[in-house]
Design a protein that fits this description.
By secondary structure, the protein is α/β, with parallel strands linked by helices. It contains eight helices and seven strands; from the N terminus they run βαβαβαβαβαβαααβ. Helices cover 42% and strands 15% of the residues. α5 links the parallel β5 and β6. The structure holds NADP nicotinamide-adenine-dinucleotide phosphate. NADP nicotinamide-adenine-dinucleotide phosphate (NAP) binds next to α1 and α6.
Length: 250
């Protein structure tokens, strides 16, 4: 049995990932604020946690509880964590960003994946199995635009964090393999949100409107296929940050 923890499963990429991972050989642990009843109805064994990842100080107790389930399996075939949950806002010039909005953004996009990784490594330290963490980053970490300072900073931070832990785990006897990946432009609510920002707050908004009009956005389903292909590769974690996902045809 593989145990797979996925954040941000109420919609978008996370929902598509969970949907594709439902099978009798997987035990899924899904996390978002709004529970996804459609997923819950399809998988009797799924543990669905309604949890706000901005409350990072609660993650320790939360993981204690989650790993109590995983540790009941004496011979796990693998234990995976997919840090997918993320937010875009605030999108505006920095002088308009409020301190509490900046802090909340960083808690969800950066601090939560860091704390979850910390507890994942602690809890799995003495478990000899295939252990992997996939962090969903973004090309915005590298390609910068005005008004997206929070998003670019949190994703660049996630990339650096992933590289650091990749190094840290490199020489461990039973390492956690870790990689961050840029999924490409995907047709989800996050993209709807970018398109609806006022031009005075985000001068590049027309480029995102055009991207959707031209049919250039990937579907969450095809993105999930490519991400799962990447996650399951034998050499997963060899490269800490992967900027180009290979699309899976068919
Ligand atoms: N779409 C793109 O073009 C694109 C491109 C590059 C990278 N990404 C990255 O891909 C990931 C998924 O994005 P998406 O496009 O699928 O976005 P989405 O449709 O907006 O979904 C975001 C998910 O994150 C969860 N989430 C947000 N805040 C949360 C919180 N405080 N606590 C727990 N869960 C929270 C949401 O659940 P609740 O609201 O129910 O909590 C939702 O399930 C993100 O990390 C994003 O940065 C997306």
């Amino acid at each position: 049995m593989k145990h797979i923890i996925i954040t941000g499963t109420s919609r978008g990429i996370g929902e598509a990932l969970a949907q594709k991972l439902i099978n009798s050989n997987h035990r899924l642990y899904c996390i978002s604020r709004r529970p996804n009843q459609n997923l819950i109805d399809q998988d009797n064994h799924m543990q669905y946690y309604s949890f706000d990842l901005s409350e990072t100080y609660k993650i320790e107790a939360f993981f204690q509880n989650l790993f109590a389930h995983i540790k009941r399996d004496p011979h796990p075939e693998g234990i995976y964590l997919i840090n997918n949950a993320g937010v875009l806002s605030p999108v505006a010039p920095i002088e308009h960003n409020k301190a509490e909005d900046i802090a909340r953004h960083m808690q969800i996009n950066l601090i939560a994946p860091m704390v979850m990784t910390s507890h994942f490594v602690q809890h799995t330290k003495h478990i000899e199995t295939d252990k992997r963490i996939m962090n969903i980053s973004s090309a915005s970490a590298k390609y910068l635009m005005p008004s997206q300072s929070c998003y670019s900073t949190s994703k660049a931070g996630l990339d650096s964090f992933t590289k650091s832990i990749n190094l840290e785990q490199e020489n461990q006897r039973n390492p956690v393999k870790i990689a961050a990946v840029y999924p490409g432009g995907v047709d989800t609510r996050l993209q709807t949100e970018i398109r609806s920002v006022r031009k005075e707050d985000f001068p590049y908004v027309d480029a995102f409107i055009q991207l959707e009009k031209a049919g250039k956005l990937q579907s969450p389903e095809e993105t999930a296929d490519a991400l799962l292909h990447f996650l399951n590769q034998d050499d997963f974690g060899k490269q800490a940050v992967v900027e180009h996902l290979i699309p899976i045809s068919g």
